[in-house]
Design goal:
Blueprint (H helix, E strand, L loop, with lengths): L1 H17 L6 H14 L3 E2 L16 E5 L2 E3 L14 E10 L2 E10 L5 H19 L7 H14 L3 E2 L5 E3 L6 E5 L22 E4 L2 E3 L5 E3 L6 E3 L5 E3 L2 E6 L2 E4 L4
Antiparallel strand pairs: 1-4, 2-4, 3-12, 4-5, 6-10, 7-8, 7-9, 9-14, 10-13, 11-12, 14-15
Helix pairs in contact: 1-2, 3-4
The structure holds magnesium ion.
Magnesium ion binds next to strand 4 and strand 5.
């Protein structure tokens, strides 16, 4: 999993370097696929078709500004100065998966966009730091939600992190908020254990948290058009603390 995570990290770094106004999201997708193939890895999103979704047609998801997640790369979708773009990649290498997402600025971005990205990264870091023995997954979820709330943002409540291993999406779920007794959603809580590997992926929203899925069957946007940011790492629970697997 560490090797798969390293390949994902390299692909992210190659894409990050290519980000500038005028570049298409399809060009970023091609960069990622090339890195994966150069390292004998295969994309997990390509052809992925859970539930009623059509097969996902690309290696990465590329989600710009008010697009929360699952944006489909396109030759006609080009980056503009001031955009923020969330890129998500998962790959499988020698039977194991790595999964990570980052949101990047395109050229100079507004202070509010910068603040949202920083807050999302901070929420991810808070969740990673809470991923220690003696804690439960509710502690991780609460750390994420508390960090987001401290910055004044809402988390996307419909989406969670997930176990990662031989498949991209495994049990258990890793929520970004924790339910109250009255909530409709009741997550399953569990003790963290050595050897658990999961992806934590907070998505923060600058405005209202109502979401809509577009007609392409994938792209999720905020209803009110407000900005969103997404950061994700795959993490292992060890005796000496959390180990981030998706680093170079
Ligand atoms: Mg991901």
């Amino acid at each position: 999993m560490r090797e798969a995570g390293r390949i994902v990290a390299i692909a992210h770094e190659e894409m990050r370097r290519a980000i500038k106004p005028g570049v298409s999201t399809k060009a970023l997708d091609t960069i990622a696929l090339t890195v994966l193939r150069d390292h004998a890895a295969e994309p997990c999103f390509l052809g992925y078709a859970p539930g009623n979704h059509p097969p996902f047609p690309a290696t990465i998801t590329a989600s710009i500004n008010n697009e929360l997640v699952h944006g489909i790369p396109s030759e006609t979708r080009t980056l503009n100065e001031g955009d923020i773009i969330g890129l998500d990649i998962a790959c499988i290498h020698k039977g194991f998966v790595g999964d990570a997402a980052f949101t990047h600025p395109v050229g100079e971005v507004s202070r509010s966009a910068r603040r949202l990205m920083d807050a999302t990264k901070a929420a991810l870091n808070a969740a990673i730091q809470a991923s220690v023995l003696g804690n439960r997954i509710s502690d991780v979820a609460k750390a994420t939600a508390k960090s987001a709330a401290r910055s004044g943002y809402s988390v996307a409540r419909e989406y969670t992190g997930h176990g990662v291993g031989r498949a991209m999406h495994e049990e258990p779920q890793v929520p970004n908020w924790w339910h109250s007794k009255k909530s409709q959603v009741q997550w399953q809580d569990y003790d963290l254990q050595v050897g658990m590997t999961y992806a934590i992926e907070p998505m923060l929203i600058a405005g209202r948290s109502d979401l809509v899925e577009l007609d392409d069957g994938w792209t999720v946007v905020t209803k009110d058009g407000s900005l969103t940011a997404h950061f994700e790492h795959t993490v292992a629970i060890t005796e000496v603390g959390p180990l981030i697997l998706t680093l170079q």
